[in-house]
Amino acid sequence: MCGIVGYCGPRAAAPILVEGLKRLEYRGYDSAGISVFHDDALNVVKRAGKINDLRAAVPDQFPGSVGIGHTRWATHGEVNDANAHPHLDDTGRIAIVHNGIIENFQTLKDRLESEGHQFASDTDSEVVAHLVSSLYDGDLEQAVKRAITLVKGTYGIVAMHLDEPDRLVGARNGSPLVLGIGENEMFLASDVTAIIAHTKQVIYVEDGEVVSINSSSYSTTDLRDNPIEKHVDVIGWELEEIEKAGYSHYMEKEIFEQPESITRATQGRLDFENATGHLGGLNMTNRELLEVERVKVIAAGTSYHAGMVAAYVLEHLARIPASAELASEVRYRNPIVERNSLYFAVSQSGETADTLYAMRELQRKGARVLGICNVVGSTIPRESDGGVYIHSGPEIAVASTKAFTSQMTAFYAFALVVARMRNLSYSDGLRFLQALDSVPEKIGRILDDITPIIALAKKYARAENFLFLGRGINYPVALEGALKLKEISYIHAEGFSAAEIKHGPIALINDQTPSFFLVPDDSLRDKVVTSMKEVKARGGPVIALAVEGDVEVGRIADDVVFVPSIDELFYPFLMVVPTQIFAYYCALERGCNVDQPRNLAKSVTVE
Ligand code: M6R
Hints:
By secondary structure, the chain is α/β, with parallel strands linked by helices. It has 3 domains: 3-235, Aminohydrolase, N-terminal nucleophile (Ntn) domain (Glutamine Phosphoribosylpyrophosphate, subunit 1, domain 1, 4-Layer Sandwich), CATH 3.60.20; 244-445, Rossmann fold (3-Layer(aba) Sandwich), CATH 3.40.50.10490; 449-593, Rossmann fold (3-Layer(aba) Sandwich), CATH 3.40.50. Helix content is 36%, strand content 22%. The model has no long low-confidence stretch (mean pLDDT 95). Bound molecules: 5-amino-5-deoxy-1-O-phosphono-D-mannitol (M6R). Residues 300-303, 347-349, 352, 355, 398-400, 483, 487, 600, 603-604 line the site of 5-amino-5-deoxy-1-O-phosphono-D-mannitol. 5-amino-5-deoxy-1-O-phosphono-D-mannitol is lined by residues 300-303, 347-349, 352, 355, 398-400, 483, 487, 600, 603-604.
């Protein structure tokens, strides 16, 4: 969603800001802008459209070494130049950028307008500029502090004032903000990707904190001006990891990274000697783990699908009742937190508002919530009671791929830990570990030859409707396959349990509606094959993902792609990868913007 970057230092600010915004593109946005101090003026350039449009609009000579930039993902007001950030107050002396939503903006705006302020946009954010202006009496930090006590909602804000030309002030409530410390230069950003080219030393700003920077120093305080001692973190990955490394798209790169990213998710976590897993960050004793009577996973989108797989594995392996629920539904149904329940909040970004707010609500009710997240230092892991980082490395494509398989990996390791404390024998534990350990190599074999999947995409990319069908532990994979296809190729796709089609969806079957069946050689295989035959009998094209050697499925399906054989609980790993590749090539065939699909954002920080 929206992105922020700010710079204070000796270098020209505009190129640093535009470059930083470029690196934030992956989050999803529809307009962008920058504001830079120069010659007693705030020079602002804003454009609806892409960063390249903004870049083209910034004059070659755009001097000034302190400034702020923003990518906007519209929530209040249409996509146009005026609604893009930065927003100025009507004296033109203050500029702000804002991520989040100001819930009481209308009340504030009415009041400010009655005091004579004139607004230039339809956004909620502009109110912050006018509010800070109305409260300014020579100290920007104090004015920002006063303003945010009047604001209801979520924000990551950075403000600048002409009277303090070597200063930026940032504040955070529910929308990420990070301070980057360079050599005689300081940065503010909503995401470290915007600044990693310049520094790896960062401070994560927390809710309720205000940060003030100039080119050589920074301070962090609370709203009552109490100084806050902050820990300087060092970003643990390299700039190259957010480059495409020769791939055409980030999504392609991230699909191909999966053997490696899954291996990273298991590193130090597979204990072959004791046939169990080892997850250091859970912050739970063995006794506490033993007392867990049920597990609930809350998440959104792809992470929710990983949670559904996890629930299946936990029930099957550890015999712990487990379920997954959409985080967006949890907060508002007054969830019942039972004793000895353990919750997991799963999120690649660690910033998804639906998941974060559900987590807070559960914690408020006394629940223990562990996080399974990718982005180190993001809000969910920081606020959770413990958890597991999946260490996938930056996932830039909006369509989540490698995070899904690594989230599953973390859950499989957790399921093994709790299963081995209960009824799973040493030898069964060892077999499970060996199967988990074999996943990267088997995915590698699928990736070694993707030509059959590319051929499928070429054949079916013009379809307008698609069904994805699986059963048992592969039912969530059917949902995930459908989600991936729809979000990047805009083909309408739905996932169902293969058994459910006869209860309704089979009415959709005709010769224009292909069905993508997931057919592992597990205990439900024959039932899936029966569903395939039902679709065939009604003239629907059938694609099957089957296991090497399954000749019968090859005969029934119009097209088949084979995956290696593996223990039945592990098929989600091998089934999902071809669906990712299929979605990717369908999107290419249709000329879609694979990495930044329309209307979507990488990290959904509003409800
Ligand atoms: O960062 P999160 O894992 O919390 O994100 C959740 C969803 O927004 C995300 O998985 C979304 O569905 C992706 N676009 C799926 O590819």
